[in-house]
Amino acid sequence: MEILAFGVQADEKPLLEAAFEGHHEVRCLDVFLNEDTAPIAAGYEIVSTSVNADLGARVLRTLAAGGTKLIAQRSTGFNNIDLGVAQQLGLTVARVAHYSPYSVAEFAWTLAMAVNRRIVRAATRTRDFDFRLDGLMGRDLHGSTVGVLGTGRIGEAFTRIAHGFGTRLLGWDITENPVCVALGMTYTDKERLFAESDLISLHVPLTPATRHLVDGRALKSMKDDAILVNSSRGGLIDTDALVGELRAGRFTGVGLDVYEAEAGLFFQDRSLEVVEDDTLARLVTFPNVVVTSHQAYYTEEAVAQIVAATLQNVLDHTAGRRGENVLVPAAVVQEGDD
């Protein structure tokens, strides 16, 4: 059987092909699944998609009409999939329940350190042989207060690193993680976390309840010199409100690996085009902001685990087994932490 994989990155393609060799053929496309590209999947029983695929009702109906039976998403989060419509259409939807939490946690700290120590600005200057230190002063994170929203696998890994820095730890989640408590974390309400933290990092899934978790009110309650990092989902932050606070000169730095309107932009080369997203265009102009293109997960270890899980999802489907990664059909769906 030939599998059709959408949104495959150049580094990911050989890993996918090697994993599927001896099992099934895989056709890798660099285009992303959306309403325009969905007809390409006609005749393919199994389709694999990336995190920024559009799997809304219209796309799902096109896939089902073309004969697709399984959608194997190569990510943990699935906020881009209309699971109710998929269930109605009789589609099976599977994801990657987990992969290396260190990939995202380490990258979140990379963003935090980059904005704190002005790494991007410093590197740009030295390329022009400008070796002045003006405007490059950061601060010690040792002894500062770090707030972690979401203390699942990734949040725990982030907390372990924070503990190594010698920070005071505040946490917010539905349930307490005993590992984080053992590391000295105090769980509190998010209002106190926003108000007291010097560094805030987001590690919760995007659901209707968490959309714009960091809204205008939350942003205003943060310290003027706080550092905010988001390596989870763009929709957790009200970006327009964030731009307003940045224009007012607030925050030491903001590190964003995700953006709420990233679909259709991230993972693509738009350097020769006019980007019509005024919010993003303004966001990247702030000298205290670093934006990367949803690459926190992108390590050899994490991608290998994602590919292996995707293969297992396909093998389970073709063998008639229900694997642990199946979301639909399901009576109750619980989303993962990234």
UniProtKB/TrEMBL annotation:
Q: Which GO terms describe its molecular function?
A: D-lactate dehydrogenase (NAD+) activity
Q: Where is the D-isomer specific 2-hydroxyacid dehydrogenase NAD-binding domain?
A: 110-296
**Sequence ranges assigned to domain D-isomer specific 2-hydroxyacid dehydrogenase catalytic in this UniProt record:** 8-326
The UniProt entry, under Pfam families, shows: 2-Hacid_dh, 2-Hacid_dh_C
**Which InterPro entries has this protein been placed in?**
D-isomer_2_OHA_DH_cat_dom (IPR006139), D-isomer_DH_CS (IPR029753), D-isomer_DH_CS1 (IPR029752), D-isomer_DH_NAD-bd (IPR006140), D-LDH-like (IPR058205), NAD(P)-bd_dom_sf (IPR036291)
Keywords assigned by UniProt?
A: NAD, Oxidoreductase
Known EC number: 1.1.1.28
Q: Reply yes or no: does the keyword Oxidoreductase apply.
A: yes
Q: Would the keyword NAD be found if you checked this record's keyword annotation? A: yes
Family membership: Belongs to the D-isomer specific 2-hydroxyacid dehydrogenase family.
What protein am I looking at? 2-hydroxyacid dehydrogenase
Q: Which organism is it from?
A: Streptomyces solicathayae
